[in-house]
Amino acid sequence: MDLGVRRARERVAAFLLRQALDGRRSVGTDNALPCRFVLQLSRRQIADHLGLASETVIRILMDMHRDGIVEVSGRTVAMRDLTELRRIAN
């Protein structure tokens, strides 16, 4: 995988994890991430925030969906493989 794409994939994964942490329940199991959350930003805004092209963010989200890591429907994100998402982000 191209280094630039890999870094972009890492940035998107880290962003999704941060969004999940921001949306975690204040009551519940120790710092548990919600398995589903709503993105507050559009894909274009996410791309701007991460310094990426919106097409890159869309492609990475589609790849992650295809790989069973996340499921994205509109602005709703469902975490399917949190272990893999964390691995990518690191």
Provide the fold topology:
Blueprint (H helix, E strand, L loop, with lengths): L2 H20 L13 E3 L4 H8 L3 H13 L3 E4 L2 E4 L2 H8 L1
Antiparallel strand pairs: 1-3, 2-3
Walk me through the structure.
- Strands 1-3-2 form a three-stranded antiparallel beta sheet.
- The longest helix has 20 residues, at 3-22.
- 20% of the residues are buried.
- The model is unreliable at 25-31 (pLDDT under 50).
- The chain has helices at 3-22, 43-50, 54-66, 82-89, and strands spanning 36-38, 70-73, 76-79.
- It has one domain (3-89): Orthogonal Bundle (Arc Repressor Mutant, subunit A), CATH 1.10.10.10.
- The protein is globular.
- A hairpin with a 2-residue loop joins strand 2 and strand 3 (76-79).
- It has four helices and three strands; from the N terminus they run αβααββα.
Please give the CATH class: Mainly Alpha
CATH topology tier name: Arc Repressor Mutant, subunit A
Indicate the CATH architecture. Answer: Orthogonal Bundle
Strand order of the largest sheet: 1-3-2
User: What's the structural domain tally?
Assistant: 1
Shape: globular
Q: State the helical fraction.
A: 40-55%
Alpha carbon gyration radius: 13 Å
The mean pLDDT is: 84
Structural class: alpha+beta
Q: Could you give the count of β-strands?
A: 3
The number of helical runs is 4
pLDDT < 50 runs, ≥5 residues: 25-31
Please indicate the percent range of residues in DSSP E strands (runs of 2 or more): 5-15%
Distance between the termini: 16 Å
The biggest sheet, with number of strands, parallel, antiparallel or mixed sense and barrel status, is:
3 strands, antiparallel
Provide the CATH superfamily. Answer: Winged helix-like DNA-binding domain superfamily/Winged helix DNA-binding domain
What is the element string, with H for helices and E for strands? Answer: HEHHEEH
